[in-house]
Amino acid sequence: MVIESISNAKVKLLRSLYNKKGRNETGLFVVEGVNMVKDIPKSVDVVYYFVSDKKSDVLDSFELNPKAEVITLRNELFERVSETITPSGLIAICKIPTPIDYKCLNKLIILDGVKDLGNVGTIIRTAGACGFDAVLLFDSADPYSPKCIRSTMGGIFRVNVVNLEYSDFDWNGDVYLLDMAGVNIFDEAPNDKYAIVVGSEAKGASEYFRNRANKILSIPMQNNTESLNAGVSASLSMYILEHNRR
């Protein structure tokens, strides 16, 4: 059966997940693109695959989750509901993982008011590549937004992601805050259990984490450069501190 109507109940569900309210109400999120869907680990609960009738052969290139339902859409409808400029013809709907207990983890990256979806996605991607255990988000952009998911390039499946309130933060490792007024990050060798805090693109770090930080670190700049993009700063800092720790 090929679905042609945008009023179909499952199509309506898919469309609702492009909004944060829909994701919060259902506990589901969208993964779009053939390569991204192929990267979904078997441990992730996939509920539906949506495929364009013109590109249904993409399903033959990887092993589907046997518990998921495959839904075929007329290509014109698929292009209408897709959020990408050039749809690949494949979308998966997955369950948002249950948050883990981060208190026992050793390496954290903390996003403190980071609002740009691209920055959040970049940081999640780098955290996974750099071997960090979790990304904690405080007052930051939704990591399960489709744009953020695309920016992670599969990294959302390689690192734990936890949304928290400031009042709920309870962790006994060292906390490093990134700020231009800090000491040179190249001179710091962290212990095994540490966290890096990246502040808001517009306002910097919150008072909460300024008070909570054990040390403030900065990335040295040349040529009168004032600051770096939040995603770049976080990525560099993860690699520098991991290199120094070893």
Structure description:
- The protein is α/β, with parallel strands linked by helices and 246 residues long.
- It has 2 domains: 2-95, Ribosomal protein L30/S12 (60s Ribosomal Protein L30, Chain: A, 2-Layer Sandwich), CATH 3.30.1330.30; 102-245, SPOUT methyltransferase, trefoil knot domain (Alpha/beta knot).
- Helix content is 28%, strand content 25%.
- The protein has 8 helices and 11 strands.
- It has helices spanning 9-16, 20-26, 34-38, 75-81, 117-129, 146-152, 207-212, 230-245; strands spanning 2-3, 28-32, 46-52, 69-73, 90-95, 107-112, 134-138, 160-164, 174-184, 194-199, 215-218.
- A 6-stranded parallel sheet has the order 8-7-6-10-9-11.
- The radius of gyration is 20 Å and the shape is elongated.
- It starts with a strand and ends with a helix.
Provide a brief overview of the structure.
By secondary structure, the protein is an alpha/beta fold. It is built from 8 helices and 11 strands. It has helices at 9-16, 20-26, 34-38, 75-81, 117-129, 146-152, 207-212, 230-245, and strands spanning 2-3, 28-32, 46-52, 69-73, 90-95, 107-112, 134-138, 160-164, 174-184, 194-199, 215-218.
Order of helices and strands: EHHEHEEHEEHEHEEEHEH
The average pLDDT value, as a whole number, equals: 93
Helix content: 25-40%
> Treating each run of at least 4 consecutive H or I residues as one helix, how many helices?
8
Second rung of CATH, namely the architecture of the largest domain: 3-Layer(aba) Sandwich
Point out poorly predicted stretches.
Answer: none
Note the overall shape. Answer: elongated
Strand content: 25-35%
Strand numbers in spatial order across the main sheet: 8-7-6-10-9-11
Task: Determine the CATH topology of the largest domain.
Answer: Alpha/beta knot
Tally of individual domains:
2
Structural class computed from helices and strand pairing: alpha/beta
Level-1 CATH class name of the largest domain: Alpha Beta
The CATH superfamily title of the largest domain: SPOUT methyltransferase, trefoil knot domain
